Amino acid sequence: MEAKPECRSIGKPGLASALRLKQLGRLVSVSDSGQPHIVFRGCVVSSWFQFQKQHARKQTMNSPAVALTLLLVNHLCASSMAQEPKQQVQAQARFAWVTPEVKASRVSFHTFDSDAAKSKVSYHIYTPSAYDREGQRRFPVVYWLHGSGGGLAGLAKVVGHFDAAIEAGKTPPCFVVFVNGLVEGMYVDWKDGSVLMETVIIKELVPHIDETYRTIATRDARLLDGYSMGGYGAARLGFKYTDLFRSVSIMGGGPLQAELVQAPRAGRQRAAEVLKQVYGGDQEYFKSVSPRRLAEQNAAAIIKSSLVRQVCGDQDETFGPNRNFHEHLERFMIPHTWTVLPGVDHNPMKTLEALGDSNWAFYREAFRGLK
Fold first, then answer.
1. What pLDDT was estimated at residue 262?
2. pLDDT of residue 138
3. Its pTM surpasses 0.85
4. Cα(209)–Cα(187) distance, integer angstroms
5. Hey, how many other C-beta atoms are within 10 angstroms of the C-beta on 77?
6. 332, 296 in Cβ contact below 8 A?
7. What's the per-residue H, E or C state across 58-86?
């Protein structure tokens, strides 16, 4: 007696059970999780194309049952790929240590080998035209820390802003390193150790930049500037590593609140997700690595020799926490400028444009006296 073939579907039972197969052997359809695959007659088939190719060789393509099977396989593969869980895509992007390259004037894209990330890590770097003209000259470095989302979309505009100011003589020529802070790396070592963002920057990226380019490799010649998540990162790294960075710029920074309970721009649920992912769901860990705590712990060193500015638009959802952070710095008598931009919301280019030449006055002061 001829054995009846088995047709079993994982995740798509309705489609598969409707199919009557004769003499096709065993078919296991696509799973909704992981990479799409088919097991047909004991062979793993990874795609519709491979299925056609493999079974055309067996001269079974003219069989009506096989043709019907092909239609099923095509549908299942397409459905599985089209319906890949959004969370999986987001997770992959979240841990993209090597980003796509952004094309912009005087910007190049590079990677370095990272022990902390166990991967190559990418960055973009702007080099001023003076770097090409003056072959022996060394230059200061700005480390630009982007906000959540990865920062690639706005990179070219920020570069244009820097380049125009440097060419106009409004600020000294400098490198601008666009750090890869991941989609939501928070510029901190995650509590579970899965992402060592701070270690990558401090122990690997900064030494790599000094070894690779003609930098002025001193704290006085390094400036941390960041917006949103990047402002948070600039504050915490600048206040923690006062021996590496003299100048710190905090623009529209967040999260600067005492506890991560509410995200001003995203709500309680998003705050809880970030708290769990980055800080292990531990408010005490969040507090221990926060700019607020670091300002308290290192107030003497910051007061002694750091140059700090804080900027926020009065229409920015993060304005309240930013103002509270400014008052926190005042309580510890940490010198800093506090600039409120009327009518400006949470937007990095609007913030830079609203600052106008005062932005470059800060840079001139940061790099004053460098040789």
1. 79
2. 97
3. no
4. 18
5. 22
6. yes
7. CCCCCCHHHHHHHHHHHHHHHHHHHCCCH
For 61-93, write each residue's pLDDT tens digit.
Answer: 455 555 454 454 444 444 433 434 444 334 444
Q: Please, what are the domains in the chain?
A: 7-84 (no CATH), 91-366 (3.40.50.1820)
- High-pLDDT (> 90) share of the chain, %: 69
Strand partners of residue 261? none
* Element (DSSP H or E) covering residue 177: strand 175-179
Whether omega before 100 lies within 30 degrees of 0, making that bond cis, reads no
DSSP string over 274-337: HHHHHHTT-HHHHHHTSHHHHHHHTHHHHHHH-EEEEEEETT-TTHHHHHHHHHHHHHTT---E
Give the closest residue to 109 by CA, choosing from 178, 166, 202: 178
Contact 342, 314 (CB under 8 A): yes
Listed as own residue / partner, the contacts of 242-246 with beta carbons closer than 8 Å and 24 or more positions apart are 242/298, 242/301, 242/302, 242/305, 242/306, 243/219, 244/202, 244/206, 244/219, 245/143, 245/219, 245/306, 246/219, 246/220, 246/221, 246/222, 246/305, 246/306, 246/307, 246/366
Instruction: Report CA dihedral (170, 171, 177, 182) to the nearest 10 degrees.
Output: -60
- What value does the mean pLDDT of the chain take? 82
> What pLDDT does residue 18 have?
33
Checking DSSP bridges between strand 7-8 and strand 27-28, what pairing results, if any? parallel
> How many Cβ atoms sit within 10 Å of the Cβ of residue 158?
22
353: three-class secondary structure by DSSP: helix
Which positions of the chain have pLDDT values less than 50?
1-61, 67, 69-70, 72-93
> What pLDDT score does 39 carry?
41
For residue 63, which of 9, 37, 27, 71 has the smallest C-alpha distance? 71
pLDDT at 56: 44
Conformational region of residue 356, where left means phi above 0, alpha means psi within -120 to 50, and beta covers everything else: left
Please give the backbone phi and psi of residue 217, each rounded to the nearest 5 degrees, phi first.
-85, 60
Indicate the burial class of 60 (C-beta count within 10 angstroms; 0-12, 13-18, 19 or more): middle
The encoded tokens of residue 128 equal 């001023």
